Amino acid sequence: MSLEGTIIKEGSTRLLVPPLISERGPGRVEGKVFFNRQMAFNRDVAVVMFRSVIQPRKCLDAMAATGARGVRICTEAPGEYRFLINDREPLAGEYIRENVRLNSIGNAEVGTADLRCLLTREVFDYIDLDPFGTPIPFLPAALQGMTRKGVLAVTATDTASLCGTHPGKCRRRYLANSQRSPFMHESGLRILIGTIVRMAAQEDRGISPLLCYYADHYFRLFLRVREGAAAADVALAQMGMMAYDRATGERRVGEGSMGPMWLGPLLDHGALAEAAAPEGLACPDRVERYLELWREELDVPFYYETDELAAMLGLSPPGRAELLGALGDRGRVSRTTFSPTGFRTDRPLEEVLEAFRSACQ
Q: What contacts 24+ positions apart, CB below 8 Å, involve 4-9?
């Protein structure tokens, strides 16, 4: 079968991609097989996780389209694992086969099964879900298709519902209340994690984040899954609600109407301690920058925006170094990957505002 498209190089991997390519944003699905160049960073991070953090034996790229993620992992993070690169669209299967061939991959198989049917007969210790939009319809099958200990990776692009633009849709899909706020990308991510925690608990499974982040137009999660009621209870204990007062900027964790959501850490600092960006990534500088920020980022919900505080106080935003220094004199502080003008601190709001005024002088 002759396939239309262009051979490109992403990272160290050669990929045959179809003529219709999305350059940015969630966009629309065009044609039967979809490839988004902007997700190169997403795929870079997956390569880093396989090289430094995840050590699976049997892997599934469940909705692979051209197979870009699975093929890149097999090529750029070689290991003693088997990878089933799957998409139920037969034409996608042809692109996957060609990309496996182009990169001379010996540990990959190609599948064209429906995900929910596939996971009734096979189990995996790494499953990657990257649907167009919400992952909700596919999560029950993925959780049931995990081994006793494994990693579930999830991409979600329906950020508008999770971040409060469409709160009704969030209630229907995620059984949670969302709200627009200066930190809406963090609250949306935490609602998504919390939904998976609750779904896993119904199967007596516990969830803990290895790495969960927001970038560009999507949320991305790497979740460790553990079997057992005790693990489920530990995860559920880190669920809760939160409140945001737009007038005062106060974030009250453990009460309010936003949620339920995950209130625990968004990443495992120990697991990421040795993670490094190898040579040959598509976005090496960006990966290095994010790794640096993830290593230093505090496990404190929720971050503050300098523009938010400046508007509240009627002041011009201070310099980044001055603000972080003033906060560091009072307690712990860190930057955040959620926003170039955001920061986290363990100090109460009154001290944050005091430090902000001090930095403005």
A: 5/95, 7/102
Domain 10-296 listed as CATH 3.40.50.150: yes
Between strands 82-86 and 108-111, the pairing is: parallel
CB-CB contact of 191 with 261 (8 Å): yes
Q: Which residue has the tokens 């396989």?
A: 50
Angle at CA of residue 223, ends 305 and 267, nearest 5°: 40
Residue 233: half-sphere exposure toward Cβ, Cα within 13 Å = 3
What is the DSSP pairing of strand 124-129 with strand 58-61? parallel
Report the distance separating Cα 197 and Cα 3, nearest Å: 41
Task: Give the H/E segment covering residue 277.
Answer: none
Neighbours of 308 (CB within 10 A): 18
Taking the C-alpha atoms of residue 99 and residue 102, their distance in angstroms, rounded to an integer, is 5
Sheet with strand 146-156: strands edge to edge: 108-111, 82-86, 58-61, 124-129, 146-156, 218-227, 205-215
- C-alpha 77/C-alpha 16 separation (Å) is 20
CA distance 4 to 284: 30
Over the stretch 65-97, which tens digit does the pLDDT of each residue have? 999 999 999 999 999 999 999 999 999 999 999
Structural domain boundaries in the chain = 10-296, 304-360
Per residue in 263-292, pLDDT (tens digit) is: 999 999 999 998 999 999 999 999 999 999
Topology alike, domains 10-296 and 304-360: no
Q: How far is CA 126 from CA 24, 52, 113, 145, 154, in A?
A: 27, 15, 17, 10, 11
Contact 65, 35 (CB under 8 A): yes
Please give the structure tokens belonging to residue 274.
Answer: 């040795």
Residue 199 one-letter amino acid:
M
Q: How many CB atoms lie within 10 A of CB 55?
A: 12
CATH topology of domain 304-360: Phenylalanyl-tRNA Synthetase; Chain B, domain 1 (3.30.56)
Task: Provide the pLDDT confidence category of residue 28 given band limits of 50, 70 and 90.
Answer: very low
